[in-house]
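Two quick folds needed for the group meeting slides. Do the first one here.
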Amino acid sequence: MTVQHKLETGDTSLDESQLLETQRAFDSVAADYDGPRGNNELIQRMRITLWDTVHSELSPGARLLDLGCGTGIDAVEFARRGFRVVASDWSPQMVERARARAEASALESRVTAVHLGIQQLNQLEGEFDGIYSNFGPLNCAPDLAAVANECARLLKPGGRMVFSVMGRICPWELGYYALRGRFKRAGVRAARGATAVGMNRHTIWTYYYLPREFYKPFAEHFSLASYRALSLFLPPPYLVDYYRRRRNWCERLGRLDDRWGALPVLRDMGDHFLIVMHRR
C-alpha cells in the first residue's frame, strides 16, 4: 500500500514502509543534526529538565536505556553523571553519531550505542534501572502497548521511566499558524493515528498524545508518578528566533513554565510533556 493511498483512505496504522521512511528522514539529517538543535536555547532548556528529572529519580551507577538516542547528547551527559547507558535508535546514521560522540568524550566504556528501533525492543536483552526517551521518539512508535510490555520486561521492579513526548495541544502552535491563515497546519496535532510530518524532503510518521492517553497502554505495569508541560508558556523550539528577539520577555514566560507547568489542566498542554512512571 502506497503512502498516498494510506493518506487518501485514512489508514492510520504504521507499516514497515512508513517506519523505513521515518528512518531515512533521520538518516538524512544526522550529519548536521546538532547544529541548529545544539544551539537552540529552547531545546536545551527542555533537555535539562529531563536530565534533572532522571537524576532525581535514579542514582549514579544505575543502568539506563535510551530510546531514540539521536546523536547521543543525552547518553553522554548521563555517562558524565556516572550512569551506564545503552543508547538505541532506529536511524543507523544517528547511532554512528552517538557512538562517535561517546568515543570523543572518552566515555565509550559507559555508553553502548545500538541500532535498534523502539518497535524492536523484543530483540534487546538485559535488565535496566531506568528507561528514558527525549523529544518524542515514542511518538513514532507504531504500537505503544507492545512498547509498554517490553519496557516492563526490561525494567527492574521499582525502576523508573522518564519520557519527553510531543503533546496533542500546543497553544503556541495553534495561535502561530492560525494567525497566518495556515489552519490545516495549526490543527495537525489533532489528527488521530499516524500523521505525516515533513523533514528534509522526507516524511516522519508521528502520533500525538494527551498525557493520560499516552499513559493508558502503560497502566498495567506502571504507576503514573507525575507529568508536566514543557514549553507551554514558552514558544516551541522552532520559534527560537522569536525567543531571541524577545529574550527578557520569554525568560519571564519560562518562569511561568517552571511554576505552573505541573498544575492540573495546564500540564495537559505544551509543545511536549514530561511523564514519569514507576515499574510496579
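Then this one, please, same format:
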Amino acid sequence: MSDIAAARAHYVAMIAKRERIASKRLLEALAAVPREDFLTRGPWRVRSAAAHSYRLTPDADPVHLYDNVLVAIDARRKLDTGLPSLWAHFIDLLDVKDKDHVVQIGCGLGYFSAVLSKMVGPKGRVMAVDCDERLATRAASYLRAYDNVEVVRGDGRRDIGGPADVIIVHAGFSHPHPLWLRSLRPRGRLLVPLTQRDREGAAVKITRKGKGFEAEAVQQIRIFPGQGRGVTALDDRVADWWQRASAMAPLRFREIEQGLPSDG
C-alpha cells in the first residue's frame, strides 16, 4: 500500500470510529474521493477544530490532508474547508441514499459534493450551490468528472432547483428559510446551522413529517455566516430561540412566519 493509500485508509477509519458512522455508503465515498483534488497545490494552511491559528504543512505531500483538520480557503476571512469528522457526522445523520436528490448550499470547493455524488450514485443528483463566484468556478472545475453534480453560482435562499430528498447547508443562518422547507419531499431532511453574529450556534436537523416538520438540535457548531444572514440583535434572538427550543425536545411545526415556527 502506498503512503497516500495508507493515509486515506487511516483517515476513513479515524472518522468512522470518532463519529460512529453507520453508513457504509458514506465510508466508501470518503475512501474513494481524493481530498487533494479539491484544493490548490500545497503546502497548505491547516488547523484543528480547537486551534485558533493555522500551521503550514511541511510540504505539498497530500498525506498531510488525511487528518481531521480544516484547510484554509481564505485565511484572511477565516474561511475554511469543512472539518471532515463534523460533516461526515452530519451526512450520516441525514441518511443519504442511492438515487437521492441532494442540494448543498455553500458547497465551497466541492469536496463534500463529490462525497455526496458517490453516495447517491449515477441515478441520483447533487446540486452544489455557492454564492461566491470564485468558489463556484473552482468547484465546477474540480467536479467536472462527477457527472451527477451540477454546480450553480447563486443564492441558495432563492432557487434550489425544485424538490429535494436532502438539503444540507454549509453556512450559518438565523433561521431555516421557507424555501428549504417547501422544497423537502415527504420524509425529506434538512441540516442547517443556526448561529449568532459571533458564528456560534447549533446545527439543527429538520425532517418533513406528513403535513408538517420536526426539528431537533444535533450539535453545537461555529461556522462562516451565510449570505443574507441577518446582523441585528433580533436575528440573534431568533437563532437563540431555535437553538433552545429544538434542544429541549423535537420541535413540531407546519410553517415559518417571520423566522419562527408556526402551526399555520
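Slide caption for protein two: The chain has a mean pLDDT of 92.
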